[in-house]
Design goal:
about 110 residues, five-stranded mixed beta sheet, 3 helices, about 15% helix, binds FE2/S2 (inorganic) cluster, 2Fe-2S, Probable ferrodoxin, electron transfer activity, 2Fe-2S_ferredoxin-like_sf
Length: about 110
């Protein structure tokens, strides 16, 4: 299990133990985290699983592939340097303790 903290748009924090190999979107949806829509179910085709990776973790998350970068052009909320699609980030031991912030709107 990998402990992930999600900070919802209203500032609420949810700490979730995520099985390794799950995407950080999948874990958020399964646990009722507010601020995630994930309309495409994780196929990198909707950009409604946008999150901001806490800066302390940004370097440790594997780099985004080209299709993710292209989809990030379509996010509804402000795109920032730490913007990622949470369906494209897999829980691994290297990400133990990661913090994600959810934007105010996804679509
Ligand atoms: S769930 Fe659609 S792009 Fe991540």
């Amino acid at each position: 299990m990998v402990t992930v903290t999600y900070i919802e748009p209203n500032g609420n924090e949810q700490q979730i133990d995520v099985p390794e190999g799950w995407s950080l979107m999948q874990a958020a949806m399964s646990n009722g985290v507010d601020g995630m829509e994930a309309e495409c179910g994780g196929s990198c085709a909707c950009a409604t699983c946008h999150c901001y990776v806490d800066e302390a973790w940004a370097e440790r998350v594997p780099a985004a592939a080209e299709n993710e970068l292209a989809m990030l052009d379509n996010v509804a909320a402000e795109r920032r340097p730490t913007s990622r699609l949470s369906c494209q980030i897999k829980a691994t031991a290297a990400l133990e303790g990661i913090v994600l912030r959810l934007p105010v709107n996804q679509s």
